[in-house]
Write a structure and sequence with these properties.
By secondary structure, the protein is mainly α. 89% of the residues lie in helices and 0% in strands. It has four helices and no strands. Keywords: Membrane, Transmembrane, Transmembrane helix.
Length: 165
Protein backbone atom coordinates (compact mmCIF):
# COMPACT_ATOMS: atom_id res chain seq x y z
CA UNK A 1 0.00 0.00 0.00
CA UNK A 2 3.02 2.30 -0.20
CA UNK A 3 2.31 5.46 -2.16
CA UNK A 4 -1.19 4.23 -2.90
CA UNK A 5 -3.63 6.79 -4.18
CA UNK A 6 -6.31 7.90 -1.74
CA UNK A 7 -9.15 6.52 -3.88
CA UNK A 8 -7.53 3.10 -4.12
CA UNK A 9 -6.80 3.11 -0.39
CA UNK A 10 -10.44 3.84 0.47
CA UNK A 11 -11.69 1.28 -2.05
CA UNK A 12 -9.47 -1.40 -0.54
CA UNK A 13 -10.46 -0.38 2.99
CA UNK A 14 -14.17 -0.55 2.18
CA UNK A 15 -13.82 -3.89 0.39
CA UNK A 16 -11.78 -5.39 3.23
CA UNK A 17 -14.36 -4.11 5.72
CA UNK A 18 -17.25 -5.67 3.77
CA UNK A 19 -15.25 -8.89 3.37
CA UNK A 20 -14.54 -8.98 7.11
CA UNK A 21 -18.19 -8.37 8.06
CA UNK A 22 -19.32 -11.18 5.74
CA UNK A 23 -16.65 -13.48 7.20
CA UNK A 24 -17.76 -12.74 10.75
CA UNK A 25 -21.44 -13.23 9.84
CA UNK A 26 -20.84 -16.54 8.06
CA UNK A 27 -18.19 -18.25 10.16
CA UNK A 28 -19.38 -16.64 13.40
CA UNK A 29 -22.89 -17.85 12.63
CA UNK A 30 -21.71 -21.38 11.89
CA UNK A 31 -19.58 -21.43 15.02
CA UNK A 32 -22.47 -20.14 17.19
CA UNK A 33 -24.91 -22.65 15.76
CA UNK A 34 -22.58 -25.60 16.29
CA UNK A 35 -21.22 -24.64 19.71
CA UNK A 36 -24.22 -22.94 21.34
CA UNK A 37 -27.58 -23.17 19.56
CA UNK A 38 -27.67 -26.90 18.76
CA UNK A 39 -26.31 -28.07 22.14
CA UNK A 40 -28.65 -25.71 24.03
CA UNK A 41 -31.70 -26.82 22.05
CA UNK A 42 -30.83 -30.48 22.60
CA UNK A 43 -30.22 -29.96 26.32
CA UNK A 44 -33.21 -27.75 27.16
CA UNK A 45 -35.95 -28.93 24.80
CA UNK A 46 -37.66 -32.26 24.31
CA UNK A 47 -36.54 -33.93 21.04
CA UNK A 48 -39.64 -32.99 18.99
CA UNK A 49 -39.51 -29.37 20.20
CA UNK A 50 -35.74 -29.19 19.68
CA UNK A 51 -36.09 -30.44 16.10
CA UNK A 52 -38.93 -28.02 15.35
CA UNK A 53 -36.91 -25.14 16.81
CA UNK A 54 -33.77 -26.09 14.86
CA UNK A 55 -35.72 -26.48 11.62
CA UNK A 56 -37.20 -23.00 12.01
CA UNK A 57 -33.90 -21.49 13.15
CA UNK A 58 -31.93 -23.02 10.27
CA UNK A 59 -34.44 -21.77 7.70
CA UNK A 60 -33.89 -18.23 8.96
CA UNK A 61 -30.12 -18.48 9.36
CA UNK A 62 -29.63 -19.74 5.79
CA UNK A 63 -30.33 -16.26 4.43
CA UNK A 64 -27.48 -14.76 6.46
CA UNK A 65 -25.13 -17.63 5.64
CA UNK A 66 -25.77 -17.81 1.92
CA UNK A 67 -25.81 -14.01 1.55
CA UNK A 68 -22.46 -13.87 3.33
CA UNK A 69 -21.01 -16.44 0.92
CA UNK A 70 -22.10 -14.35 -2.08
CA UNK A 71 -20.70 -11.15 -0.53
CA UNK A 72 -17.42 -12.94 0.27
CA UNK A 73 -17.10 -14.20 -3.29
CA UNK A 74 -17.74 -10.79 -4.85
CA UNK A 75 -15.58 -8.82 -2.43
CA UNK A 76 -12.82 -11.45 -2.59
CA UNK A 77 -12.64 -11.29 -6.38
CA UNK A 78 -12.60 -7.48 -6.31
CA UNK A 79 -9.88 -7.45 -3.63
CA UNK A 80 -7.76 -9.80 -5.71
CA UNK A 81 -8.17 -7.59 -8.79
CA UNK A 82 -7.31 -4.24 -7.18
CA UNK A 83 -4.84 -5.47 -4.53
CA UNK A 84 -1.18 -4.63 -4.90
CA UNK A 85 0.97 -7.12 -6.82
CA UNK A 86 0.75 -10.16 -4.57
CA UNK A 87 3.68 -12.43 -3.82
CA UNK A 88 3.78 -15.99 -5.11
CA UNK A 89 3.49 -17.28 -1.54
CA UNK A 90 0.41 -15.10 -0.99
CA UNK A 91 -1.19 -16.57 -4.12
CA UNK A 92 -0.48 -20.11 -2.90
CA UNK A 93 -2.13 -19.41 0.47
CA UNK A 94 -5.11 -17.75 -1.21
CA UNK A 95 -5.61 -20.70 -3.58
CA UNK A 96 -5.36 -23.11 -0.65
CA UNK A 97 -7.82 -20.99 1.33
CA UNK A 98 -10.27 -20.95 -1.59
CA UNK A 99 -10.02 -24.75 -1.83
CA UNK A 100 -10.83 -25.10 1.87
CA UNK A 101 -13.70 -22.61 1.49
CA UNK A 102 -15.12 -24.62 -1.43
CA UNK A 103 -15.09 -27.75 0.74
CA UNK A 104 -16.61 -25.77 3.62
CA UNK A 105 -19.43 -24.51 1.40
CA UNK A 106 -20.18 -28.03 0.12
CA UNK A 107 -20.22 -29.50 3.64
CA UNK A 108 -22.36 -26.64 4.99
CA UNK A 109 -24.90 -26.82 2.16
CA UNK A 110 -25.10 -30.62 2.48
CA UNK A 111 -25.71 -30.33 6.22
CA UNK A 112 -28.32 -27.56 5.90
CA UNK A 113 -30.11 -28.86 2.80
CA UNK A 114 -29.91 -32.61 3.30
CA UNK A 115 -29.13 -33.85 6.80
CA UNK A 116 -31.06 -31.32 8.92
CA UNK A 117 -34.24 -31.51 6.77
CA UNK A 118 -34.00 -35.33 6.88
CA UNK A 119 -33.88 -35.23 10.69
CA UNK A 120 -36.94 -32.95 10.72
CA UNK A 121 -38.75 -35.28 8.30
CA UNK A 122 -37.92 -38.39 10.32
CA UNK A 123 -38.97 -36.68 13.54
CA UNK A 124 -42.46 -36.00 12.20
CA UNK A 125 -42.85 -39.40 10.53
CA UNK A 126 -44.50 -41.82 12.96
CA UNK A 127 -43.04 -44.82 11.10
CA UNK A 128 -39.43 -43.66 11.54
CA UNK A 129 -37.16 -45.80 13.61
CA UNK A 130 -35.44 -44.12 16.54
CA UNK A 131 -32.17 -45.67 15.35
CA UNK A 132 -32.49 -43.95 11.97
CA UNK A 133 -33.12 -40.58 13.63
CA UNK A 134 -30.12 -41.08 15.93
CA UNK A 135 -27.92 -42.04 12.95
CA UNK A 136 -28.77 -38.78 11.17
CA UNK A 137 -28.28 -36.80 14.38
CA UNK A 138 -24.81 -38.38 14.68
CA UNK A 139 -24.08 -37.33 11.07
CA UNK A 140 -25.20 -33.82 11.97
CA UNK A 141 -22.72 -33.71 14.85
CA UNK A 142 -19.86 -35.06 12.70
CA UNK A 143 -20.53 -32.57 9.91
CA UNK A 144 -20.78 -29.78 12.49
CA UNK A 145 -17.32 -30.62 13.85
CA UNK A 146 -15.95 -30.73 10.29
CA UNK A 147 -17.45 -27.28 9.66
CA UNK A 148 -15.78 -25.85 12.77
CA UNK A 149 -12.40 -27.35 11.80
CA UNK A 150 -12.66 -26.06 8.20
CA UNK A 151 -13.72 -22.63 9.48
CA UNK A 152 -10.69 -22.42 11.76
CA UNK A 153 -8.39 -23.54 8.93
CA UNK A 154 -9.92 -20.87 6.67
CA UNK A 155 -9.34 -18.14 9.24
CA UNK A 156 -5.76 -19.34 9.81
CA UNK A 157 -5.05 -19.30 6.07
CA UNK A 158 -6.56 -15.80 5.83
CA UNK A 159 -4.26 -14.59 8.58
CA UNK A 160 -1.28 -16.34 7.02
CA UNK A 161 -1.94 -14.86 3.58
CA UNK A 162 -2.19 -11.36 5.08
CA UNK A 163 1.13 -11.90 6.87
CA UNK A 164 3.02 -12.85 3.71
CA UNK A 165 1.16 -10.55 1.29
Amino acid sequence: MKFMGTDKMWSLTLLRYIHLIATVAWIGGLFSIVTAVIPSAEKRLQPPAARAFMNSFMRRSRLVGYSSIVILAISGVLLTIIEKEPSTLWKEFIYLKHGVIAILIIVTVYLHESIIPKIAQLATDSTSELEEVKAFEKKEKVFSVVIIILSLITLFLSTLSESVG
